[in-house]
Model the fold of this input.
Amino acid sequence: MSNQSTGVLERLFHLSENNTTVKRECLAGLTTFVSMAYILFVNPIILGDAGMDAGAVFTATALSAIMGCLLMGFLANYPIAIAPGLGDNAFFTYSVVLAMGIPWQQAMGGVFVASILFTLVSLFKIREIIIDAIPQDLKYAMAAGIGIFISFVGLQGGGIVVSDPSSLVAIGSFKVPTTWLTIFGLFVTAILMAKKVPGSIFYGIVLTAIMGLVTQIIPPPESIISMAPSLAPTFGIGVSNMTSILSDPQMWAVVVIFFLVAFFDTAGTLIGLAQQAGIMRNGKMPRIGRALMADSLSMLGGAVMGTTPTAAYVESSAGIAVGARTGLTAIVVAVLFAFSMIFSPLLAVVTAQVTAPALIIVGVLMTSSLREIHWDQFEVAFPAFMVIIGMPLTFNISYGIAFGFLFYPILMMIAGRRKELNPLIWVMFVLFLVLLYTLTMLKF
Done:
């Protein structure tokens, strides 16, 4: 890269100020992309179950990720990638469309309305104010909880942990070749980390993929280049169906859930990743307003194109672990998503077993924030513990945050520390009560 190009990148992303380099940011972007590329295949499968055109969803997924990552990189200068979230697409398909019998077109209208509300609260800095009001101990707990959560995702995706009807979870079968591929990747990546090899996580992913191909556990791609499918079957459907929500009270609840889950899911992820990257300053995240606006606009764009809400991706922690510190990483991820629309067959090589070791090891790095929590103060320790344990056990970041905020203000009052409570803590207490109650009513 020429000195002139490097100078432009330096001015845009302040690389020297953040103690990073172009090479490191590009490697981190590649690592993040490889860790989250599964969404290009998983999202069309899940939304396809709702009756949506899988090809159009693939294109919408890639375009909304490109939009979100570009906005995050240029607006906020953060190494955090954005793409359609896994929890939201599952709720959309299996709870709203299949369980409640709402047509996917109308449900997408609900996503569009929720995204408008989401953008408005970001524009008026309401989200920023709420995030700044979150107690520091709970921010540390969010980082650790997300770390354990993504480790659990890795253990499950790699086949090391499986579901069990009697004990909920159990150890996986070692007779399955893909499980051994995960174990191979875990040992290789852990050894590289222990040797302090730069880019250990990325190299671990590459070596695991190569081993999968060599042992024929992963089938080789059928082709290399494939044109992106048309967006026509899903584009604008949410916009044209938004008015039907006004006459359906059931859809009001759906809009509320999409809004609240997206709100706190992204907030928790941003805080956790910022904590890991060392971005937090005096308990606050600089440029948080720009990061939230990037997330909001990508959610709005995704709803127009035909996909469920976007979110900040916890897999960004893999890139941060490699050394990502600026928005250049997010820009690299956007470019790779753009390439993926043409070279989509190659992504089939990056299976869940290939990325699982990276997620497990990143969990170790993120849980280091546990040491910062005031465990000697029970009124703080218990809510923090509920956040940490709630995320992996409910398989949802928002639910874990909810558990913590339902206990924190009450225990602080009982402990005689009422004056330390920000009034917004009570607002969040009520919001989480509404969220959990609404979800319970919809399920039962």
Remarks:
- The first strand starts at residue 82 and ends at 84.
